[in-house]
Amino acid sequence: MATGCWFLAFFWVWWLPLMLVAAAEEEQVGGCFGSAKRCGNITISHPFWLANMGAERSCGNSDFEVTCFNGTTPALRSSVPSGPGFAIIDISYEERTIRVIDLGKLELLHTYNSCQVPFWNTSIKLGRPFRIDPVNLNLILYYCTEEAGTAAARQDQALVELRCSDKRNTFVRVGGRYNGSEKYEG
């Protein structure tokens, strides 16, 4: 057999198994993304994927992993370890947008017997590849004395007092547009 033929045979012996493995992996990933799934009234499809608690493998990038709570509430995980994450309200695959609610803040604001003020910025919990649209407004919560709240209200900043059962002085106002900096406009 000519040298060229031996080289070709050697090439196929080494590359054929690699190509078969790559094809099998592509088929396996295709099985993950092959069909849209539902959680509640939200359709989950590529690039998002529903975590399957029984499966040991993931179906894609962990940033796009969606957990379905009680079969009704889809949620993205937080980029902060052990953070509660974000409930998905809507996904528009055409517009490449997703509307979410910070579950940690939602829980604090819905607690009846306390009036805890969230002390972290939601934008730090939102990891890449996601970003907050600049048309959104900052929501600023204050936990301060009534005098400080009144002083802030006098500075032309509409401050609304939250009625708390434990008589804490908690105020909320809408700030300026979200711009990704740590400065809160408005």
UniProtKB/TrEMBL annotation:
Wall-associated receptor kinase galacturonan-binding domain sequence ranges: 37-102
Main location group: membrane
Signal sequence extent: 1-23
Pfam families associated with the record: GUB_WAK_bind
InterPro entries documented for this protein: WAK_GUB
Membrane topology, record value: Single-pass membrane protein
UniProt KW keywords: Signal
Compartment annotation: Membrane
A Gene Ontology cellular-component term: membrane
One of the record's GO molecular function terms: polysaccharide binding
Signal found in the keyword field: yes
Protein name: Wall-associated receptor kinase galacturonan-binding domain-containing protein
Organism taxonomic ancestry: Eukaryota, Viridiplantae, Streptophyta, Embryophyta, Tracheophyta
